[in-house]
Design a protein that fits this description.
Shape: rod-shaped
Distance between the termini: 41 Å
Number of strands: 0
Largest sheet: none
C-alpha cells in the first residue's frame, strides 16, 4: 500500500524537486509507486505553497497595520503627558491620559514594551495625576462655596475662582504673588447700572449717578477685600500645599516618561516584541 503523504511531506517533495532530484529518486524517497500519483502530489504541493505565500503576505500587511496602530497610540500617549494647570481643571476635566488608557490596545503596550522602569514611572504618574485633578476639583468647589457664603455677593463664582487658582499656579511656579483684584463683573460700568437700578428710579439725574458711582467704588473695595481674604486663605491651606507638592512631583515624571517614549519611538523597540493582539499569534479558543 502506497504511503499517505501529509502537507508537510508534500512540502519536502517540492524541496526535493528544487534540489534537482529525478522523478525516480523522488518516488523512491517518498514511497510513491507511479508517475500519476507523483504529478498529483506535486500539483497539490504547488497549490499549498501558493496559498501559504498569499497568507504570509496578508499576515505581513496585517502585522504592519497592527504595529502602525501601536506606534500611533505611543505617539498619542507621549503627546498627552501634560498636566492641566490649576485654572484649567473643571468638574468634568478628565485625566490627560484617560483616553489613552481606555484604548483596547493600551494593555498590549505592556507586552510590546516590557520595560519595568517605564511602567513603574507611569503607575506613579497616573496615581498622582488622579489625586492632583481630584484635589483641584475639590478646591474649586471649596472656593465657590466660600464665595457663596459671603453676604451681598452676586457674581459668577467661576469668574472669581479662576484668578484664585491662577495665584496658586504662580506660587507653584515660584512667581511673585500679586494682590488679588476681583474682576467677576464684565466691567464696573455693569455694576454701576445695577447700583442705579437699586437707587430706585427710572429717571436718572446727576445726583443719582454720583450716588451710584460712589456706591460702586465702595462695593468694589469690598469685593477686593473679600476675595483677597479668600485667596490668601486658599494659598495657606493644607489642600493647596499638597496640590503644589503634587504639581512639582508630576513634572519630572512627565519629562522622564516623555523621554523614554521618544527613545522607544526612535528605536522602534515595540517591533521587537509581540502581544496577544498581534496577527498570527496563537490564542486559546474560548
Amino acid at each position: 500500500m502506497a504511503k499517505k503523504l501529509t502537507i508537510f511531506d508534500r512540502r519536502k517533495l517540492l524541496e526535493a524537486r528544487e534540489r534537482g532530484l529525478t522523478d525516480s529518486e523522488i518516488k523512491a524517497q517518498f514511497g510513491i509507486t507511479d508517475d500519476r500519483t507523483l504529478r498529483r502530489h506535486l500539483k497539490l504541493a504547488e497549490q499549498e505553497q501558493e496559498a501559504r505565500l498569499v497568507k504570509i503576505e496578508m499576515l505581513k500587511d496585517a502585522l504592519a497595520s497592527h504595529l502602525g496602530e501601536v506606534r500611533t497610540l505611543l505617539e498619542q500617549w507621549k503627546n498627552a503627558l501634560r498636566k492641566p494647570q490649576f485654572d484649567e481643571v473643571y468638574p468634568g476635566t478628565p485625566s490627560p491620559t484617560g483616553n489613552i488608557e481606555a484604548s483596547p490596545l493600551f494593555n498590549s503596550l505592556r507586552e510590546h514594551l516590557p520595560f519595568p522602569t517605564l511602567w513603574r514611572n507611569f503607575s506613579s504618574y497616573a496615581k498622582k495625576m488622579d489625586e492632583y485633578i481630584t484635589g483641584i476639583k475639590n478646591l474649586r468647589k471649596e472656593i465657590e462655596e466660600e464665595i457663596k457664603n459671603w453676604q451681598n455677593v452676586q457674581d459668577a463664582t467661576t469668574n472669581a475662582t479662576q484668578p484664585i487658582l491662577k495665584r496658586i499656579l504662580d506660587k507653584a511656579l515660584g512667581k511673585k504673588i500679586k494682590d488679588y483684584h476681583f474682576k467677576g463683573w464684565t466691567s464696573y460700568k455693569d455694576l454701576e447700572k445695577k447700583e442705579l437700578a437699586d437707587v430706585g428710579s427710572f429717571m436718572v439725574d446727576d445726583i443719582k449717578v454720583l450716588e451710584a458711582s460712589d456706591l460702586t467704588s465702595r462695593r468694589k473695595k469690598q469685593y477686593d477685600k473679600l476675595y483677597q481674604e479668600i485667596s490668601d486663605q486658599t494659598l495657606a491651606n493644607q489642600t493647596t500645599v499638597q496640590l503644589i507638592t503634587l504639581y512639582n512631583d508630576l513634572k519630572p515624571l512627565e519629562v522622564k516618561i516623555h523621554e523614554d517614549l521618544q527613545e522607544i519611538l526612535l528605536r522602534r523597540d515595540y517591533i521587537m516584541y509581540t502581544c496577544s493582539l498581534c496577527p498570527g499569534q496563537p490564542r486559546l479558543v474560548r
